Amino acid sequence: MDIEVLKEWPTKWLRRAHVGKAALWGILAALGLAALYPVFFLISGSFMGKDELGEYLGAVISGSHGYAHFPLLPAYPTLRHYVEVFLDSPGFFVMFWNSVKITFGVLAGQLMVGTMAAWGFAKHEFPWKKGFFLLYLILMLLPFQVLMLSNYLVLDKLSLTDNLWGIILPGIFSTFPVFIMYRFFRELPDSLLESARLDGAREWQLFFYIGLPIGSSGVIAAMVLGFLEYWSLIEQPLTFLKERRLFPLSIFLPDITSVSQSGMAFAASAITFVPALLVFLGGQDYLEQGIMAGAVKE
Amino acid sequence: MDRKKIIGIFGGFLAVMLMFTMLSRAVTGASLARVETVRAKTGAIEHKVTGSGKVEAGKEFAVYTENGQRVKEISVQEGQYVAEGELLFTVDMGELEEQILAIQQEMEKSKLQSQDAQSAKSVEERNRAVAKNRAAQDYSQAVDNGNSDVAKAKAAWDEAERNLQELLQHKPDATGDNGSPDAGGGLSDWEAKKGQLEQAAAEAKAAYEAALSSRVDNIRAAARALEDASMRPASDSTSKQNEITRQQQELSLRKLQALKEAGGKVLAPAKGVITKIAITTGEFTTDGTAMLLADASKGNRLVASVDKANEEYVSKGSQVSITAFGSKEPITKYTVASVAENKEDKELLDIVVELPEGVLEAGVRAEVEVVQKSGNFSSVIPLQALHEEQNGYYVFVMQEEQGVLGKELTARRLDVRVQDKNNMYAALEDGALTGEQDIISSSSRPIDDGSRVRVKEQ
What is the pLDDT of residues A151-168, one digit of tens each? Predict the structure, then answer.
């Protein structure tokens, strides 16, 4: 009996470990699905007909009784809402290009200004450097709402409200990418720069030929993070823009409280989702590095 | 995934989005309502009222003849102009002569009847005179008889009274003063005599009273008989009536004889246009008018019917333009003389225009047009820009609005009040529209408040 018991022990342990792992997987899968559910919801909703959407969402949108429920797949898939967005909504494209302008404007500006600022903080010594950097950190940490009013007053003074530059310029000079890139440039050994200087390299040559190539992953990480941030910008446009023709896609709000518009809202959201997905796929590695860089304190 | 590939896909995505940007603009542009716009102007609203009618004679006179004549021949037609004395129609002479004879016989009969009545009347009058005389005699007789009867009765009564008084004075002494042995016997005789005399006096008095009353009765009866006899007989107008009938017959006879003398021909009493012929060849004439003639020496009048809905735009004195049927030149210098409801159709109004002699002949059909111009309105728009619904009127104004696509042209509904309108223009109440607003007058598809629109290219 004892022997048999001893023989069974390892298998029991193994089996238990196996079961535990499966359970863990199950829980994680369930959580993952829960997290992904809105995405499925979005994609399948964009292919559903109006009647179907009305049936599923009626409880939430049009005030009929019961709870909203949502199946994974549409019963009668249709491309109607995509056609509607692509062909019948010139407004959607206006906002799409507004988003493109804001995002790429900000990123291009950051590429020019932010990289240099980060390089300066990382590789140059100047009076009050620590103080300035602290100021940068504080600005980075302040939520938008805190500075909303003062931002507005400044923009108003500069006549930049109701103007895409009112969104782009503050974005260009935002401190977060500087902070990210700063960490990458810091990792560059000073000795390398010293030797380059000894070889007669000018300061701008150091930046363009040594700093940027070596710190490129940091720059790209900052750009990817920036893209995701500015592509889904909501507060700034809502606060600083009044004219609908300037609205970016992130506040393209077809009246989703009515069943007739919800399908179009789903389709528009799905299309909006595409660039963000592509950027994410392309910059996945850098994204991780960038987030890590932001997390590691000096 | 390969980064270059992803960048490629991203680029492709942007290209696709660019393409659809164009495409969606094209599609939306093509599906927008294309509109034409107008602006409110100042101006007046003209109300044009048209109708048609016929020229009628300003003064008409009737031609008629004796009732019951057979029409032998009609020599004119409606609308024909006739001079004074021109033959209008002829009646049958045989029929006419028969009628004359019949009337003459009738008159003879009446005359005989009248004579009979006269003689009967004189006999009756004589009888009445005799009866009256007799009654008068009876009356005086009754008065005389009564008086003598009363006188006799009075005399008899007086006699009886005297006898009684006499007896009362010679009453015998009841105490026996004279000592006669039969004194007691004399008193009782006296008493008995006195009773007889008293009775006789009473009877005579009664006879007298009876005579009095009888006299009254007899005289009354005789007076009544006299009264009856002298009563006037009931009035009798037979002779007068006969006289009147005779006069009428004489009149008819004279007319018929005049017609006969004219050879049965009826002539136009004055120059004019025949407007109506009410007789038919071969039929008998009636009491009514045989023919109507428009007096050519007076002007005519045009009576035209217009829709009663236009009542407020047509009034006495309104300038009227007349176009005679078949003519192109309108006559414009006359005005409406009167406006009245059409007697046959309550939905119509009759307007009358007096025309002087020689303008249009009676019987001509003509179109009339009355134009009434309102005062000046500050915003007048074409009628097609005005929309109507149950609660009132509205227009669509094109506005530039800021939308997602920038400046967009949007149709905005504006409720307005209409002051006046005709079939082309409407005048709106002041203040609703300014002269700078573009009012949508036509649209390639139905539009609503807030619809985006495009201006139609000219």
Answer: 899 999 999 888 899 999
Question: CATH classification of B49-91+271-374 is 2.40.30.170, yes or no?
Answer: yes
Q: What residues of chain B lie within 8 A of the CB of A87, using their CB? A: 20, 23-24, 27
φ/ψ region of A236 (left if φ > 0, alpha if ψ in -120 to 50, else beta) reads alpha
A83 interfaces chain B, CB cutoff of 8 Å: no
pTM of model > 0.90? no
Nearest chain A residue (CA) to B28: A88
DSSP 8-state secondary structure symbol assigned to residue B234: P
Q: A251 at the B interface (CB within 8 A)?
A: no
CATH H-level superfamily of A85-295: MetI-like (1.10.3720.10)
Q: Cα torsion for B222, B224, B226, B228, to the nearest 10°?
A: -150
Closest CA relative to residue A135, chosen from A182, A179, A168: A179
C-alpha–C-alpha distance, residues A49 and A70, integer Å: 13
Which residues 96-125 of A are in CB contact (within 8 Å) with B? 96-97, 100
CB contacts of A282 in chain B (<8 Å) are 1, 3, 6-7, 10
The chain-wide mean pLDDT, for chain B, equals: 83
Q: Which residues of A touch B31 (CB under 8 A)?
A: 88
A285 close to B (CB below 8 A): no
DSSP B23-70: HHHHHHHHHSEEEEEE--EEEEEEEEEEEEEEEEESSEEEE---TTPB
d(CA B58, CA B302): 9
